[in-house]
């Protein structure tokens, strides 16, 4: 049986005094990242807003990932605030690996931001996706494919009326470099090729392609800011 992890030192009086002083001089985190709901302050912005206050009060902030050895692919994220007196507090979150590297990274990033704001005593910014349950993972390829499948169970589709050559070419241009999405559309509608897509589904599929590409662009911008 795994030992129960401690989440604080025996004494935390000095740490709490220093943290209360630091909290009184935090800067307001800058809303620097786009999301479907609007701009919000990401982890980098949050840390920038508090680093000077933490340093002046001899406080350190640290997060790390520990991989579990049970074969589940799970991870433990630990967030720690330590004081020069050797007093400390921490929080932990179990993270399960997602279906893709992107979904796993999104989950880790969201947990890191959530636990950082919790321990540091910062309210999430108004547009923070965690408040809306509308994060980048919600807009990921997997979620987009699920949205595409919904109409199939809601109404009958006229499979004899397929998209025109012009519409077919339009979709192929949009789907260039997205072979996984092409395969999913074909499998979802049980058709041999994209050219057999029912005409009444063209608008729905086109909208989902645009959502997927927008989410992909947002993720790439997010990744680029970290490099």
Description:
It is a single chain. With 227 residues, the protein is mainly α. It is built from 8 helices and 3 strands. It has helices at residues 13-23, 43-56, 101-120, 129-132, 141-154, 165-174, 179-188, 202-226, and strands spanning 59-67, 75-83, 88-95. It is elongated and about 75 Å long.
Detail the topology: elements first, then pairings.
Elements: H1 13-23, H2 43-56, E1 59-67, E2 75-83, E3 88-95, H3 101-120, H4 129-132, H5 141-154, H6 165-174, H7 179-188, H8 202-226
Antiparallel strand pairs: 1-2, 2-3
Summarize this, please?
The protein is mostly helical. 48% of the residues lie in helices and 11% in strands.
Terminal-residue CA separation: 40 Å
**Tally of individual helices:** 8
What's the helical proportion of residues?
Answer: 40-55%
Beta-strand content estimate:
5-15%
Note the overall shape. Answer: elongated
Unreliable parts: 132-141
- Widest sheet: strand order? 1-2-3
Radius of gyration from CA coordinates: 23 Å
Q: Let me know the average pLDDT.
A: 80
| Main pleated-sheet profile | 3 strands, antiparallel
Q: What is the H/E string?
A: HHEEEHHHHHH
Q: How many strands appear in the DSSP assignment?
A: 3
User: How many structural domains does the protein architecture include?
Assistant: 2
Structural class designation: mainly alpha
